[in-house]
Design brief:
heterotrimer; A alpha+beta (760); B alpha+beta (195); C alpha+beta (86); A: 760 residues; Aldehyde Oxidoreductase, domain 3; Aldehyde Oxidoreductase, domain 4; 3 domains; six-stranded mixed β-sheet; C: 86 residues; alpha+beta; two-stranded antiparallel sheet; 2 helices; 7 strands
């Protein structure tokens, strides 16, 4: 069992002093002693507590809302409904990471006219304490006209399906439709000649798949404290992946200028894509304005499950063909993903990722974004890619078995590489899929036999784009020679330290000599969300450039001090030298602090490319044929990190994503009853992996440096979740002989499949 | 799965007359009464004698966080499934969301805030830091408390025993690998300190 | 000349052409030139004068939604769905 780092011989690794080491994270002590402040921990003087009222129906017209009884209760300070939000703009805007329609967002925050899913927020109360607020919420009388609900994606696509929105027309690049439907978007890609491609194939496999809705499952429920002051300024302390994104959404939803809003990102207890769109911040804001006090609005766990973004369930049909020599000739995908109650789900990236690991000359992809009576779906770690990889990677496995080719070799033979044209069009720059598969093939795990009954081994690979986007940073040189790094990326997984390390490497100081701070929206330049695996890459680039800015200023000031030209000064690993002068960064900083103005570095960046991450897994399972329970015996994940800045936290991303993938594969799902009500909105019944369910997760960090980053960083956060469900499904096939096509492969589902196969 | 390390058995002693009266009120569904009347509780938290007034319906978690500003214990689910609110009660880890505040009467409570002594981190905390056993950190206080309790009871746990003991604490970020390794490291350090 | 890849659903407007070569220095100019040759195409790609929010453009691996994004003589331009990340 091991964690290893592989630097392929095709790359020329550089030597670093700080990068690649494993310092203790800067915010660590606060977090192990319980001092770190998360949004729900915050308490302001005279603060009121808020509570929601939510729809008990999956689909219902709201006839009337009577708040009078609630308002009359002692201790109740304010009640809010959608009538308290301005009429929303019907405009769609890009929020850095995907786009958002404000009419939809506003209607999701507090239902207008119709409740579109069970758990849809309808009203909220602020009171002097939480119990009064909850009791008062129950006293709000809502008259509903219950409508037929639809919760399965294929049902929602039917002509006669209950229609969620009478103004939703399918977005397509083709002819605009004239009739509304539940299909929000149709995506279509073509490459080569699909019929010719299948005609050339010796083996063609086509399979259908179904995956259920799953939740990001962050342990911290959504929470905000809002203070909308009498001077019109609004300040929000919140749990968010993007403080500037919250500011922008609030400005649009409340129709006030961004300059009136300050968003303070508290420590955040997990997000995985689920804490980008706002839920409670605008509601807390309206309550605060109405009662003139700060208001805390925190969700309960069942509200998180029923009222916030899960990620799409799906129906997929994938067909692939290969020659008997093992060359893929053609592929075809038909994908329908839940969008939830409003359009704009994960079908775009799903369609782009479905064949992105392979060089396939002839292919078509059709993708459908479908609204239905479930909560609006949100991103979840490589959004849309995991479902698609299940389909592709299990068909690939079936073809490899059919052709009698080793599954890793078959993937290597067809793997995308620099210059490969993806089905959606673009060609790849330098990528590391081949090196990642090679590392897997050479691993001790792959070369160890797996023996015993009911056991099987599976492999799979996966792709995720990763984003660049806007980041800003400032760095202040202190008079003791340390540096304070000021940045705006909420730190979910140790990014303060990965950024501090890049600054330290550039300046030639230690990571511990940098003090990184995540600050509010008034205190740093615009920074996009912590998402798209972008922080260590993009905000890291900003930290590096801020360090170069400091270095330039240090050189100029040293030149004045030493009476030479800036060009005469040599900088080497943090030592500044000219003739007999030789000073470390720290010595020079101490001297300069007493001889002139402060040294402040700054940088704002906006890299636009994707950094292209690939991951591959080997998993060994044992199936209990009596119960259908699958035990993970051994798990190895290999991933191209470009360059691992802090290897422990890169491994952490790989291990965490792997275990989320294991949960998605084996247990996690939303259960709905026939009225569209979720039946398992708790951590007891929505079964996420515990420590007892999984083994150690072995990691192989592959370093194929990204040419578009000074240290070669690729994003590492997301791609690790993509291969596990497919790898596990392939392992279950080897263990049982059964091809499973429905996630999760929970004990009842596998038990039934085994029984049916055995003719019982 | 639930772990035998966790128990929500009420503390043995909470026999003040007032508490009993209010239990009766709770059974009658007399909401108004336990809203209006506060109950006095004397307890020990992190070695200090503490007195507080609470509603009968308030959980220990709510009281610790909102009443006493001990926000190190977190609310992840409020029904005993995630372990983020774990505290020690009479030397056993409990989900404080499933304990009533009134049950703290005469009990000894230890929260994450009490684990580091006078500026010195506990070896479990130190090992979590060095082993990168946390990412977002929201579950960390609950883990630290549960691990400390485990190692006091079983100084040489096997990997399976550690996994079993921690199964009541959910972590969504780490995949548990680095947590388990950090517990193993802490067990070794504590053992060395003893010998 | 830059190479513009025409998404399959738009090829009804280009008479089946999947790739179009044209001179342009920016994404905005690419769309204007396409519109001049294939009337109606801009309406399918844009909302008012901006790229539709559901779309992004890829110019030599660089994803952008800026109409002033630079297009070089050897650039490849693709129109793709916009993506979010977790």
């Amino acid at each position: 069992m091991s964690n290893v780092i592989v630097q392929p011989s095709s790359t020329r690794p550089r030597k670093y002093n700080v990068i690649g080491t494993r310092p203790v994270r800067h915010d660590g002590v606060d977090k192990v002693t319980g001092k770190a402040i998360y949004a729900a921990d915050l308490s302001l003087p005279n603060m009121a507590q808020g509570a929601y009222l939510r729809s008990p129906h999956a689909h219902a017209r709201i006839i009337s809302i009577d708040t009078s009884q609630a308002e009359a209760m002692p201790g109740v300070l304010a009640v809010a409904t959608s009538a308290d939000l301005p009429d929303p703009w019907d405009k769609t805007e890009e929020l850095g990471e995907g786009c958002i329609n404000y009419a939809h967002l506003s209607g999701n925050v507090l239902a207008r006219k119709k409740a579109l899913y069970r758990g849809h927020a309808v009203a909220a109360v602020a009171a002097t304490d939480i119990h009064t607020a909850q009791q008062a919420a129950r006293q709000i009388k809502v008259e509903y006209e219950v409508l037929p609900a639809v919760t399965w994606v294929l049902d929602a696509m039917e002509e006669d399906a209950p229609l969620l929105h009478d103004n939703l027309f399918t977005q397509t690049l083709g002819e605009k439709p004239t009739k509304p439907s539940n299909i929000g978007q149709h995506i279509h890609f073509e490459q080569g000649d699909i019929e010719q491609g299948f005609a050339e194939a010796d083996v063609v496999i086509e399979r259908e798949y179904r995956t259920e809705t799953v939740h990001q499952g962050y342990i911290e429920p959504h929470a905000s404290v809002a203070l909308w002051n009498e001077d019109g300024r609004l300040k929000i302390w919140t749990a968010t992946q993007g403080s500037f994104t919250v500011r922008q959404q609030l400005a649009e939803l409340l129709k006030i200028p961004v300059s009136k809003i300050t968003v303070v990102p508290c420590e955040i207890g997990g997000g995985f894509g689920g804490k980008i769109a706002v839920y409670e911040p605008p509601v807390a804001a309206v309550l605060s304005r109405k009662c003139g006090r700060p208001v805390k609005l925190a969700m309960r766990r069942d509200e998180v499950f029923e009222g916030t973004g899960p990620t799409p369930g799906s129906f997929m049909r994938v067909k692939m063909g290969a020659t008997k020599e093992g060359r893929l000739t053609a592929a075809k995908a038909w994908l329908a993903y839940d969008a939830g109650a409003f359009p704009g789900g994960m079908i775009g990236p799903g369609s782009m990722c479905v064949f992105s690991c392979y060089d396939i000359p002839n292919a078509t992809v059709d993708g459908y974004d479908v609204v239905l009576n479930k909560p609006k779906t949100q991103a979840y770690r490589a959004p849309g890619a995991t479902q698609a990889a299940l389909a592709t990677e299990t068909v690939i496995d079936e073809i490899a078995v059919e052709l009698g080719i080793d599954p890793v070799d078959f993937r290597l033979q067809n793997a995308a590489k620099e210059g490969t044209r993806r089905v959606d069009g673009p060609t790849y720059p330098r990528i590391g899929l081949v090196e990642t598969l090679q590392a897997l093939k050479e691993s001790e795990h792959w070369n160890s036999p797996l023996e015993g009954p009911n056991r099987g081994r599976g492999v799979a690979c996966g792709f995720w784009f990763n984003a660049g986007l806007k980041s800003s940073a400032a760095a202040n040189v202190n008079d003791d020679g340390t540096v304070t790094l000021v940045e705006g990326s909420p730190d979910i997984g140790g990014t303060r330290t990965s950024l501090a390390m890049q600054l330290a490497e550039t300046l030639g100081i230690a990571a511990e000599e940098v003090h990184p701070q995540v600050v509010d929206t008034d205190s740093v330049g615009y920074t996009d969300v912590t998402g798209g695996s972008r922080v260590t890459f993009s905000t890291g680039l900003a930290a590096h450039k801020a360090a170069l800015d400091i270095q330039d200023q240090m050189i100029k000031r040293a030149a004045e001090l030493w009476e030479c030209q800036p060009d005469d000064i040599q900088v080497d690993a943090g030592t500044y030298g000219y003739n007999d002068h030789k000073q470390t960064f720290k010595e020079l900083a101490v001297e300069l602090s007493s001889t002139g103005e402060a040294i402040v570095g700054r940088a704002a960046v906006n890299p636009q490319g994707s950094t292209n991450a690939f991951s591959a897994n080997i998993v060994d399972v044992e199936v209990d044929p009596e119960t259908g329970k699958v035990k993970i015996l051994r798990f190895t994940t290999a991933q191209d990190a470009g360059k691992a800045i802090h290897p422990s936290y890169v491994e952490g991303q790989m291990q965490g994503g792997s275990v989320q993938g294991i949960g998605w594969a084996l247990n996690e799902e939303y259960f709905y009853d026939d009225r569209g009500a979720m039946k398992n909105a708790s951590f007891l019944d929505y079964r996420m992996p515990t420590s007892y369910d999984v083994p150690m997760i072995e990691t192989i960090i592959v370093e194929v440096p990204n040419p578009d980053h000074p240290f070669g960083v690729r994003g590492v956060g997301e791609v690790s979740i993509v291969p596990p469900p497919a790898a596990i499904t392939n392992a279950i096939h080897q263990a049982t002989g059964l091809r499973m096509h429905h996630l999760p492969i929970s004990p009842p589902r596998l038990h039934q499949a085994i029984a049916e196969r055995n003719g019982q | 799965m639930s772990s035998p390390q966790h128990t929500n058995t009420p503390a043995q002693k909470h026999s003040s007359t007032r508490t009993l009266q209010h239990t009766t009120a709770l059974q009658r569904g007399n909401e108004e009464r336990f809203v209006t009347e506060k109950i006095h509780v004397s307890t020990t938290i992190n070695g200090e004698a503490v007195e507080f007034l609470c509603d009968a319906r308030q959980s220990l978690l709510e009281l610790l966080r909102d009443g006493l500003s001990l926000t190190g214990c977190k609310e992840g689910c409020n029904n005993g499934n995630c372990g983020a609110c774990t505290v020690m009660m009479n030397h056993l880890p409990v989900n404080s969301c499933c304990v009533l505040a009134v049950e703290a009467e005469d009990a000894e409570i230890e929260t994450v805030e009490g684990i580091a002594a006078q500026g010195q981190l506990h070896p479990v905390q130190q090992c979590f830091l060095q082993g990168a056993a946390l990412q977002c950190g929201i579950c960390t206080p609950g883990f630290i408390v549960t691990v400390k309790a485990l190692l006091e009871q079983n100084p040489h746990p096997t990997e399976q025993e550690i996994r079993f003991a921690l199964a009541g604490n959910l972590c969504r970020c780490t995949g548990y690998d680095k947590i388990i390794r950090s517990v193993q490291a802490a067990a070794e350090i504590l053992q060395e300190a003893k010998s | 000349m830059a190479t513009i890849f025409i998404p399959a659903p738009l090829q009804d407007l280009t008479g089946g052409l999947a790739e179009v070569e044209l001179e342009a220095v920016s994404l905005g100019e690419v769309i204007a030139r396409l519109e001049a040759r294939f009337p109606g195409i801009k309406d399918r790609l844009c909302d008012d004068d901006q790229l539709s929010p559901a779309l992004q453009a890829s110019i030599n691996h660089v994803m952008t939604r800026q109409m002033r994004a630079e297009v070089g003589p050897d650039s490849e331009v693709h129109f793709l769905p916009a993506i979010g990340g977790g």
